[in-house]
Amino acid sequence: MTYDIKISPSILSADFGHLADEIAAIDKAGADYIHIDVMDGHFVPNISFGAPVYKCVRSASKKIFDVHLMISPTDAYLKDFADAGADIITVHAEAGPHLHRSLQTIKALGKKAGVAINLTTPNDVLISVMDMVDLILVMTINPGFGGQAFVPASLKKIADVRRRITESGRMIDLEVDGGITPLTAKQVIDAGANVLVAGTAIFKDGPAKYAENIAAIRG
Ligand code: DX5
Ligand code: ZN
Predict the structure, then answer these.
(1) Is the pTM of this model over 0.90?
(2) Which residue ranges form the domains of the chain, and what is each CATH number?
(3) Which of the ligands is closest to the CA of residue 199?
(4) What distance separates the 2 farthest-apart alpha carbons in the chain?
(5) Which residue, 48, 160, 161, 196, has most beta carbons within 10 Å?
């Protein structure tokens, strides 16, 4: 199976005062997905925004809304995130005791289901969900903030997840998130990632540079 490289700009680094324009700009600049980071100040030490915010800007792009939930608990809110216009909903394996149930709920809502794993979460947590996930997100930083440095130890983790995906025989996106730059993009692609989230590296220079920055990450 061959996977195209997809770039998912994280709007956490966008200008929230002009969010719809920012999303339209990264769409036009070549984004494949739009990465939406939802943080609750409990699962991670930061608060971003919830479903009502991205619902308001959903019409700014027809691209895939790739919603990364850094919240705990998750299940009571999944319908809201689906109704607000998510295409992929990713929950953290560490966010609750019943990951399989959360993924079942996402699938029942008709959305693609993703599971995210933190740096120190054993990859074996994936064993019982490999047959149902559409995306596995390997964190390459500790979640909570944009602008952090890539953790090189995550490369082994990515390679191991890619091996598990290949063995499953299923088409599953392997997404990475945190500290992705043109340099680390090459490393994570070599390790087996095919969906790259980037915030700082794409938004840092303003809209005139979005296309160039996306292209640099895509390599
Ligand atoms: C962090 C978020 C990331 C973050 C990435 O918890 O999940 O999506 O915005 O930002 P950069 O690319 O700046 O590391
Ligand atoms: Zn994210």
Answers:
(1) yes
(2) 6-218 (3.20.20.70)
(3) 1
(4) 45
(5) 196
